[in-house]
């Protein structure tokens, strides 16, 4: 049976039939030999992320696809804030917002004239600045630009996300008044949020109406940008990370900040990919990256928005052409994927998007394929909405999809077994071994066996690393150390040039080109990653650690702690010898050969220099820091200097 899964998610693939396609859907009408091949050799069925007939947005459908119940959903506003890197506290509310052209009616209402106006970059910047911040009583609001005239509006204070949208979606309809949900009509925070939002939107309209940008646009006969509309308020909440829920490590390769935010929220690693005007090349590139990432991930979500975007043009012929292009892209990557041993391929969509009519999305189910060794092969020969119901999978709903993935990866738990205190769906769970009294040192987990974690046995552990740049295997190493102690002291080696001394067998670790990040940056990165992994601030400390200067150890780390390390080369053996010569207590987490080391920070640095994908090799909180600090440019400069 398969051991790893790639989910190819063709956003908005499902559709309705159209006369110009001989009363077929765009998928039915499209020539898709590669998808048809997978259908012939796999198990087919239909999928809906909720109830049949229910029209879902992508974020809700994906939430179910990733295995979560809707009562845990935080709202799209919160997810887009996460994806855009906008700081959002647990008690803040975030809403989607965008500029619109509105007109006052005789009754004092605002008519939504155009929800997709255009503006120059300069105009947009000036308007955003004009309405960036506002306060109403104790509620503070800030508008954060994301793309074009779109933004995230954050609200702080005694606020709640249970407020209605103000965006009517369609033109020539009134902008709607924000109101508390009926289910929260007595919620004071919801009422205050609606009141503050209404005050802000009125202030925005009056402020923009007097703005010089709009005066110039009016003089030029252009529509005014004189209003903002909002929708889909949300607030972050606690959610169990994906790996902890399902026992598999996830990666999302997707475009769009909502998918990046969803991955970050659920604890999946994320690679940001943009949709270009070449859907075939985009798909091939993403699938090649996914195949490479199988070395470090068990479940990889490969997403394209192109079928959905094509359907929104309301041109079914164009959507058919986009589907054919995506099939070509899948076909280019397919030979290598099919040669990948024990791979489960799942092809699905999140929802249907009609290429005609007024609906944004519609409620028809979408076809799904499971392809891999050991699966039941059915008699379906083509991949489309009409053929799929005859397949072996039948009708798959909601989070049943991830359970089917676990089942076909031979990771599903037999119902009723309780190998851990929490009744997780996967097997084996993260178990605690039974130990005889007096046992001092349990065997630690190997790097590729994260589920066999030993119990806490040390008050304080001291672990170290350069973390240039902190990657997924670094995180495994840190968490393996934390599993052994109540408090983990993370020592950052080579903290500055004065505390760095070259060693004969340190493999160039002291070279400037191998140390692009400052101590401060690495400390921030370690803290961000460990907090993202669920550790509380009191669980760990981050300190400088001059590994080459043992005479200074006592000034930086507790010498009565247990010094934790892994060994995969002569430098590791040398460090162990140094620790033991000082009389320090040591614990080797694991010994592996250099070939088994796994991810290399040097490789990530090389990828940054050359522009190759690297985000899938690091925890989710690392890419925003690396991008903010412009580390790629820094490394490229160091590389040029070293070459001169």
From TrEMBL:
Which GO molecular function, any one, fits this protein according to its record? metal ion binding
Query: What SUPFAM superfamilies does UniProt report for this protein, alphabetically?
Result: Alkaline phosphatase-like, Nucleotidylyl transferase
Known EC number(s)? Answer: 5.4.2.12
| Residues making up the signal peptide according to the UniProt record | none
Give the record's pathway: Carbohydrate degradation
Looking up Gene3D superfamilies in the UniProt record yields: Alkaline Phosphatase, subunit A, HUPs, Metalloenzyme domain
Q: Which residues form the Cytidyltransferase-like domain?
A: 463-607
Where the record annotates domain Metalloenzyme, the positions are 4-406
InterPro entries with a match to the protein in the record:
Alkaline_phosphatase_core_sf, Cyt_trans-like, Metalloenzyme, Pglycerate_mutase_ApgM, Pglycerate_mutase_ApgM_sf, Rossmann-like_a/b/a_fold
Query: Which reaction does this chain catalyze?
Result: (2R)-2-phosphoglycerate = (2R)-3-phosphoglycerate
What is the role of the protein in this entry?
A: Catalyzes the interconversion of 2-phosphoglycerate and 3-phosphoglycerate.
This protein is called 2,3-bisphosphoglycerate-independent phosphoglycerate mutase
- Originating species: Desulfatitalea alkaliphila
| Chain's gene name | apgM
């Amino acid at each position: 049976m398969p051991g790893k899964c790639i989910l190819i998610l063709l956003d908005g693939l499902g559709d309705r039939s159209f006369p110009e396609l001989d009363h077929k859907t765009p998928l039915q009408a499209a020539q898709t030999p590669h998808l048809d091949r997978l259908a012939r050799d796999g198990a087919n069925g239909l999928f809906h992320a909720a109830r049949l007939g229910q029209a879902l947005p992508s974020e809700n459908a994906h939430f179910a696809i990733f295995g979560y119940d809707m009562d845990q959903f935080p709202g799209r506003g919160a997810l887009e804030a996460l994806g855009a890197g906008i700081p959002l506290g647990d008690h803040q509310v975030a809403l989607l917002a965008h500029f619109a052209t509105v007109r006052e009616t005789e009754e004092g209402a605002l008519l939504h004239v155009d929800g997709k106006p255009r503006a120059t970059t300069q105009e947009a910047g000036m308007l955003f600045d004009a309405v960036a911040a506002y306060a109403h009583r104790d509620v503070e609001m800030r508008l954060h630009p994301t793309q074009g005239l779109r933004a995230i509006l954050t609200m702080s204070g005694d606020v709640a996300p249970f407020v209605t949208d103000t965006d009517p979606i369609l033109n020539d309809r009134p902008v709607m008044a924000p109101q508390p949900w009926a289910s929260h009509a007595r919620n004071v925070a919801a009422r205050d949020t609606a009141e503050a939002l209404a005050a802000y939107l009125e202030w925005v309209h009056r402020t923009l109406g007097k703005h010089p940008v709009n005066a110039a646009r009016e003089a030029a006969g252009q529509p005014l940008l004189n209003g903002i509309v909002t929708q889909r308020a949300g607030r972050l909440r606690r959610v169990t990370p994906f790996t902890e829920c399902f026992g598999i490590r996830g990666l999302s390769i997707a475009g769009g900040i909502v998918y990046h935010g969803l991955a970050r929220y659920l604890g999946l690693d994320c690679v940001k990919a943009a949709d270009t005007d070449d859907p075939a090349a985009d798909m091939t590139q993403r699938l090649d990256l996914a195949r490479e990432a199988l070395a470090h991930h068990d479940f990889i979500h490969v997403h394209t928005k192109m079928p959905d975007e094509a359907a929104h043009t309301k041109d079914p012929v164009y959507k058919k052409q986009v589907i054919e292009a995506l099939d070509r892209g899948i076909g280019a990557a397919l030979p290598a994927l099919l040669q990948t041993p024990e791979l489960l391929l799942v092809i699905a969509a999140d929802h249907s998007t009609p290429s005609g009519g007024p609906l944004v999305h519609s409620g028809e189910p979408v076809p799904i394929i499971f392809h891999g060794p050991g699966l039941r092969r059915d008699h379906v020969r083509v991949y489309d909405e009409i053929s799929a119901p005859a397949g072996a999978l039948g009708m798959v709903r909601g989070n049943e999809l991830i359970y089917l993935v676990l089942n076909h990866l031979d990771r599903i738990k037999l119902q009723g077994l309780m190998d851990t205190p929490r009744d997780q769906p996967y097997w084996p769970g993260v178990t605690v071994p039974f130990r005889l009294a007096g046992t001092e040192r349990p065997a630690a987990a190997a790097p590729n066996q994260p589920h066999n974690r030993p119990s806490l046995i040390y008050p304080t552990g001291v672990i170290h690393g350069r973390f240039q740049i902190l990657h997924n295997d670094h995180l495994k190493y840190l968490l393996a150390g934390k599993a052994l102690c109540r408090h983990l002291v993370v020592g950052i080696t080579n903290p500055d040039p004065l505390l760095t001394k070259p060693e004969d067998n340190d493999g160039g670790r002291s070279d400037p080109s191998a140390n692009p990040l400052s101590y401060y940056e690495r400390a921030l990165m370690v803290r961000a990653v460990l907090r993202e992994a669920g550790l509380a601030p009191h669980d760990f400390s981050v300190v400088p650690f001059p590994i080459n200067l043992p005479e200074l150890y006592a000034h930086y780390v507790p010498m009565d702690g247990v010094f934790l390390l892994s060994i995969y080369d002569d430098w590791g053996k040398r460090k162990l010898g140094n620790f033991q010569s000082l009389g320090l207590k040591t614990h080797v987490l694991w010994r592996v050969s250099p070939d088994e080391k796994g991810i290399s920070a040097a490789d990530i640095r090389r990828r940054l220099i050359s522009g190759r994908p690297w985000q899938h090799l690091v925890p989710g909180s690392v890419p925003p820091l690396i991008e903010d600090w412009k580390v790629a440019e820094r490394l490229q400069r160091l590389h040029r200097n070293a070459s001169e």
